[in-house]
Amino acid sequence: MRRKLYRVVLPPEEREALHKMTRTGKARAREILRARILLGADEGLQGEGKEDPQIARELKVALRTVAATRERYLAGGLERALHDAPRSGQPRRLSPQGQAKLEAIARSAPPAGRLRWTLELLQDRLVELKVVQRIGKETVREALKRGGLSLGNRSRGVSRR
What we know:
Blueprint: H1 12-24, H2 29-41, H3 52-59, H4 63-82, H5 96-107, H6 119-128, H7 137-146, E1 149-150, E2 159-160
Antiparallel strand pairs: 1-2
């Protein structure tokens, strides 16, 4: 038997919190799975936790998932093991003020000679009003959707969903 590189020994209060989490099911599925991994790996109460391959088989996860959960627990504690770190991602193109401006424009009367707003018209208007330097049609569509608006079939402006 190989010596475990990352040994998990849970304090009683953490062990109880993990048991409660897995019993109630009031957490995200990923967090419950990680709680089960930690409980399986725990060497505190019984003295010898399960081996990673056994935990992986029982929970039907990759061996690397078990190892990574152990590592995360030892590196940052229970909170770090259960929850993902925030991801940076690209910042939103429209600020909350820009979102409000887009919604106001979309609800207003369309330009002369037009029956309704289109994504292209909204995109051009946001640039024209210097709300943004540039913006894509898909970003405009997503922002309208986030605001609960649709470029529906009404003859004027935007319809509420």
